[in-house]
Amino acid sequence: MAKLIGNAPNQVPTNADLGSMAFEDKKNYATISSPIYQPYRNIIINGDMSIAQRGTSESGITGDGYYTVDRFKLENSSSGTFTMSQSTDVPSGQGFVNSMKLDCTTADASPSYLIFSQRIEGQNLQYLKKGTANAESLTLSFWVKCNETGTMQVNIFDADNTRLICKTYTINTADTWEKKTITFAGDTTGTLDNDNARSFQLEWFLDGGATYTGGSVTGNWETRDNTNRFAGATINLGDNTSNEWYITGVQLEVGTTASDFEFLPHDVNLQRCQRYYQTIRGFVGYAISTTTIQTSIQFPKVMRAAPSVSLSGVLRISDGASNFTQSSINITQQQSLDDRWYGLFGNFTGLTQFRPVSKSQDDLFQLAAEL
């Protein structure tokens, strides 16, 4: 069994193997294999692009925001107009059901920046030992497809210490799914804050103007220089309306080799996303006047921080006898916590004071606590 133990991180023993192992061998196997097989080794949330609480497609994107697939932000400054969608175009035979598709619908020959990114809390990164002599290397793996061939760039930005490491990857064949694996060295400079704010930003730089080019890609950690963030790329996603870029299977993990993608159960993946964004359909409250109701909303999942609350359209309610609709959106926040929200909704007519009310339609309350 010595050979099996020596290769334990890449092998799974059979029941017969385990039965023939000595106690010490079993203990050693568990110790050796645990870094590879431990759950939640993927730092990235929703890397398989399977959760899209906001919807499956958003068109006319010209600015920054979270659109379609959860936890991934698109930052667009004067780099054309895009449609972002949750796609079913995926690499064959890899277990993925969805990808993220970015489609240029209006080109811009003078871009500022176009970035697809995920932001990560510092308290989730302490085991990287960043800023110490024992800082851990990280390996990023993902599947990508693009209509152009050439070089593209992906970076890690340390927001706590304004540090950056940049790497490039190559699109070898147009319109073909390719798996990319990139290793980032550990950074012995700059510890990460142990809090719920952004510490790391994993960013695919997809287009950039003069501010983000002209530098170099050294592949080493350094004080952030914006001229390096798109310096190694030859593909500009916003320069032609034929351009499309797909991505799925994003995994960022400790070590210098990539393991197989860590698929999580759908409910677990959804709950992790709901820490940052969730929707609510129903609530109860009561009329404090003929025009205003007061309510408290309990969140299904505790959120990263007190969220902002918005409503898709005007609010429609019922007091059991009659239905009422706001004449226009009116929300007054009284208190927002990470697990509940208290507020007032006005612009109604004809409410009976102190009578209980409930939301009568499927309009969604949107709760956002993104980084």
Protein traits:
371 residues, mainly beta, Jelly Rolls, Immunoglobulin-like, 7-stranded antiparallel sheet, 4 helices, 9% helix, 37% strand
What does this entry look like structurally?
With 371 residues, the protein is mainly beta. 9% of the residues lie in helices and 37% in strands. It contains four helices and 23 strands. The strands form four sheets. The protein has a seven-stranded antiparallel beta sheet, with no helix packed on it. It has a seven-stranded antiparallel beta sheet with strand order 19-18-22-15-16-21-20, with no helix packed on it. The chain has a six-stranded antiparallel beta sheet with strand order 1-4-5-13-7-10, with no helix packed on it. The radius of gyration is 24 Å and the shape is globular.
Topology:
Elements: H1 2-6, H2 15-20, H3 23-37, E1 57-61, E2 65-66, E3 73-77, E4 81-87, E5 99-106, E6 113-121, E7 138-146, E8 150-158, E9 163-171, E10 178-184, E11 198-208, E12 222-223, E13 244-254, H4 266-274, E14 277-280, E15 284-287, E16 293-298, E17 308-311, E18 316-318, E19 323-325, E20 331-336, E21 340-345, E22 356-359, E23 365-368
Antiparallel strand pairs: 1-4, 2-3, 3-6, 4-5, 5-13, 6-11, 7-10, 7-13, 8-9, 8-11, 9-12, 14-23, 15-16, 15-22, 16-21, 17-23, 18-19, 18-22, 20-21
Task: Give the number of DSSP strands.
Answer: 23
Tell me the CATH topology of the largest domain. Answer: Jelly Rolls
Give me the CATH superfamily of the largest domain: Galactose-binding domain-like
Number of domains: 3
The first-level CATH class of the largest domain is given as: Mainly Beta
Radius of gyration: 24 Å
Structure classification: mainly beta
Mean pLDDT value? 91
Helix content: under 10%
Model regions low in confidence, pLDDT < 50 over at least 5 residues: 1-36
End-to-end gap: 48 Å
CATH architecture of the largest domain: Sandwich
